[in-house]
């Protein structure tokens, strides 16, 4: 049962270093606090090695990358690897520009990631080594559906095998796979797509789950995905007439704050293929 | 009736590239999603041309400008012009510093803007080619009132004519003008001034309205102003005892999320002069 | 009574220049507006001298420092000193990295600060001239408790004397001291630690209090601490089943928005030692 993995986060209070975009960074910090972790942000090359050294995990998100922060991603990533910390890549917008695609691919070569979490278009771009995406959202043509699920699961496993990282591909149906097993997760609500940064928030939170469950990368990543999706369901159930995406954002973070082992065990909706 | 213009945004789902300040960027993203658009942020010179190419509109906001982002503004602005995308300038703090004033004026020379949206002090600074403002808020001495309305309308039209851009001047009374017609808008609430970034949010949303209504710059800009102001009224009506500016911020974004053609048609409060 | 000091903020509407981290900057802006101040952000070296010149106070927060913003901190700090503006330092993460510690110490040498506000681990690092902290949160071993209060008060006074700045050390028990007197404040709630940036928010708000009460640095700083803590209590009293840290964040800012002289006079919980 996945509830144990969030319980471990609350016990461990993992300190997570985030090199992340300035659009959603505040929500990433509050979600990390909500799930029981502790966030720290730093993206200056001269600062990141020491900051990442005092943490247990590193979350690299290329959402508003620039020359300075890219340098920091490599420096911090290598340092985290050297210290055997957990490291996650969120390749925001890979496929939308050459700089984003190339940075993500180069990071995958020079840094060992425990998990790569993105939407299906971003992960397909990384699998192909090039590609195009419609901005930071997944292309409809790429969407994982009940019809193409078999193929998508196979793709996720193969990507995990080739990259050496757990693949966490989120969308209407979420896939979290290593080379042999794939969690197919059906939590969440379509309205979550109307809130900026639920993916970024998930990546930050997932890094805390990885740190707190060092021997269970696949299950920890799946538990984080279920936590986010279930929080989306619980938050939605608390919406009232006239509420919209801003209140929904607060409700989801609140639901993560209140998530416990039992709630997650009961609400997590997944199968393993 | 202006309701059609938001309906078009929801149908078109315009992708808007924002080079904007880090203070209010998260709200800008959520407001863009609330109105039916889709946001993407990028401010690295090497990244912006490709990012803006996949979008339909570009929102340039100089609120926390720096050397790097300034370079990106010119690169992206020229690229957007070359692709005939809609482009908007929000000259935050023009008049408050030489760098801000000069950057805004230089942008106006080298980039063709469909709309320039700012407070009256900022726009007066741009009209004069120099000036001083009290920080990022309009100077009281500049305020558009019922008493000086005739003059202000004339000023707005002349600014639009000279700049070649629709002028969107927001305050207690909002003016949206091209060289011949001026929407005088009386939506909104004074308490909106106690929330950071309602102007930035409006600029992001307005860019989506421009993209979705390419043949109606003036009306689209006016519709965005009415949407924001009306959302301010609706949001305020939902405030409860003990609520303050933080809840009000959420309520306004929620109201935009729920805004439809009929609500906007009925609630928009304007005259054309 | 401390209520007078917030009343003065609402009368004066102090314009505060913030060079602050991008994690919590939006909340800092909204808290400044909530308490009656007016925020402006700028961190480009070429921009900051003019921006700080039009303000009454400068809030320097090293939370996500980089080479560019560090240069801006020195430029703005010296300019603010030359103009006799109020200046505050928030040494986020001092002790967590060499760059942070060294930057804070060098700022203290070259800029005169009216107040230095941090957690106990950060302030101890500055007192020693070096040190380690657990990320951006205070180390448990450093915590100010009823048991070590005498020593902590003595430490705060000595730090104030040596640094020439009022020391505002926040935690479960808050200490605000000059060389002779120390406010020992017992407002606040432990749940505030589950919201990112309550410290940053306090620093921004405190700067407004300093500007509006130029002859009472110690009392103004203490009043700001009581305002934040009391808002934390009031906000918590409005929490409902299912609410969490995201709603709590909104409730606290709302409570600051509604804070008046009487509420602060009645709710402030402090003694002077």
TrEMBL record, chains A, B, C:
Record InterPro entries: Hyethyz_kinase (IPR000417), Ribokinase-like (IPR029056)
Positions of substrate binding: 41, 197
Gene that encodes it: thiM
Family under the similarity heading: Belongs to the Thz kinase family.
Species of the source: Dorea acetigenes
Domain of life where this protein originates: Bacteria
Entries under Pfam families matching the protein: HK
Name this protein carries in UniProt: Hydroxyethylthiazole kinase
Positions that bind ATP: 117, 170
Function text: Catalyzes the phosphorylation of the hydroxyl group of 4-methyl-5-beta-hydroxyethylthiazole (THZ).
UniProt keyword annotations, A-Z: ATP-binding, Kinase, Magnesium, Metal-binding, Nucleotide-binding, Thiamine biosynthesis, Transferase
């Amino acid at each position: 049962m996945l509830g144990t993995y969030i319980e471990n986060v609350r016990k461990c209070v993992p300190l997570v270093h985030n090199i992340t975009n300035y659009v959603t960074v505040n929500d990433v910090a509050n979600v990390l606090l909500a799930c029981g972790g502790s966030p720290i942000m730093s993206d200056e090359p001269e600062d990141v090695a020491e900051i990442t050294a005092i943490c247990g995990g590193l979350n690299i998100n290329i959402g508003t990358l620039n020359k300075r922060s890219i340098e920091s991603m490599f420096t911090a990533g290598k340092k985290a690897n050297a210290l055997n910390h957990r490291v996650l890549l969120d390749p925001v917008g890979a496929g939308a520009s050459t700089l984003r695609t190339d940075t993500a691919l180069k990071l995958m070569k020079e840094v060992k990631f425990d998990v790569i979490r993105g939407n299906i278009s971003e992960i397909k771009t990384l699998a192909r080594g090039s590609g195009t995406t419609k901005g930071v959202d997944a292309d409809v043509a790429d969407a994982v559906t009940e019809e193409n699920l078999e193929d998508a699961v196979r793709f996720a496993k193969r990507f995990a095998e080739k990259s050496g990282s757990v693949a966490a591909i989120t969308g209407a149906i979420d896939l979290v796979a290593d080379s042999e097993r794939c969690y197919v997760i059906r939590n969440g609500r379509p309205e979550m797509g109307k809130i900026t940064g639920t993916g970024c928030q998930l990546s930050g939170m997932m890094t805390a789950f990885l740190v707190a469950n060092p021997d269970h990368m696949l299950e920890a990543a799946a538990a984080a995905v279920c936590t986010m999706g279930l929080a989306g369901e619980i938050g939605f159930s608390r919406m009232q007439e006239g509420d919209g995406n801003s209140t929904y954002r607060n409700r989801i973070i609140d639901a993560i704050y209140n998530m416990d082992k039992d709630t997650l065990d009961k609400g997590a909706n997944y199968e393993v293929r």
